[in-house]
Amino acid sequence: MHIHKIMQLVFFYELTYKPKKESSKTEKAIGILDIAEKVSIYRDYNLVAQDSILIQAAEKMHKSGFFYDIGKTMKWPAFTFKIKKEYPEMKTILIDGISQKYFGYIDTSPQNWKIENEMDKVTGLSVQKAILDFGGKKWIAWFTNEISFQDGPYKFHGLPGLIVKIEDVDKNYSWVLTGVKKISDFSELSFTEKISGFNDVNIISKDKFEKAYNAFREDPFAEARSRITPQMRTQKMPGSDITVGDLLKQQKKG
Description:
Structural class: alpha+beta
Strand content: 35-45%
Number of domains: 2
Distance between the termini: 52 Å
Radius of gyration: 21 Å
Low-confidence stretches: none
Mean pLDDT: 82
Helix content: 10-25%
């Protein structure tokens, strides 16, 4: 199989990862790499897989005038970030939600690959080994000349062919290509992303992004807390004796 000069493809990767460092427990997620003529987008499959559910629910609510809780039918993504690579420069941008806004940063970290002579077969494709030091980890990748895109999952790119498998030596993260599909309706933004404001992204420095992201993870309700008036804090939650202020205190402790 040789794939080249074919635009608008989606590559499916199975990601096996450790939610906590130094843990033997692993979890799995599906990531997709959309490749179009001038851009590629890597994201969690569930970020786009919910589109049909949301569109149907929106149409149903519009016709009936009633609100339907579709939370139980949704499969939430394991990872909420999106990686955008702009061709041909391979300008790499990470985008994620922080509080109620979307922020991104341009990652200029070099990817200095060392290509080895070792060959193998992965998921039926002839692959060659390459090694990379990136993000504080040592990575081992297997790429194929049968698919000539110099791209891969997450931020990885720059090899002579598509990355079929890549994992760090401690096996905290491992991606394996599991499938490919040709698409005719590529959109950089899914329906879910459009209605959530993903098209309005503030690009900031990586340092500012990481500080804001870490602060948000430590206290997700910080911004909401600052907007709540003293009067609102004394109000009780529906069906409970707990006040809004007490709930926010519990969330902060948690």
